[in-house]
Amino acid sequence: MRRPTLLILGVAGALLAAGPAMAADVHPDVVNGREPATGEVASLIYVQADGYLCGGTLVAPTVVITAGHCATGSGGQAFDPSQVKVGYSATGSRPLAHLAVSQVVPEPDYNSDTYDNDIAVLVLAAPIANATQIGRAHV
Is the pTM of this model over 0.85? Predict the structure, then answer.
């Protein structure tokens, strides 16, 4: 279970290393968005668990980063992997291929009351063939 936690820290470190210049361009709300072009967001993953519909990012052929509240119950406990549905489309079209999750790893310091550290790792049961994952961060 240590490897996914290190992955979370590595991704978070890379985002923080981008510094204030990146923060100035961040817009947290999507207003009047648009459908992405085919293949434009190829690393985007669909996550559904306990009524939540969330997004995730493929960071390795078997590793998805998502929000902690999408992977845990109200007390912060990780969902059983069989309760989590993950969808992926290499071309950006529907229907999505549904993938089995073998492990759900919420950030150990995730707080379900305040949503502090709201991040989790989903480990897929098998790699996605020909998947486009987000670029690797070197920290």
Answer: no
Which residues, listed in sequence order, are joined to residue 98 by a DSSP beta bridge? 87
| 8 close to 65: Cβ distance less than 8 angstroms | yes
DSSP H/E element including 60? strand 52-60
On the question of pLDDT at 136 being above 70, the answer is no
Measured CA to CA, the distance from residue 99 to residue 83 in angstroms comes to: 12
Residue 16: closest CA among 102, 120, 139: 139
* pLDDT tens figures, 32-64: 667 666 666 667 888 988 877 888 988 888 999
What is the DSSP track for 82-136? GGEEEEE-TTSPSSPEEE-EEEEEE-TT--TTT-TT--EEEEESSPPTT--PPPP
CA–CA–CA angle 120, 117, 102 (5° rounding): 10
Polymer length in residues for the chain? 139
Instruction: Name the amino acid, one letter, at 130.
Output: N
Given a contact cutoff of 8 angstroms between Cβ atoms, the answer to whether 125 and 138 are in contact is no
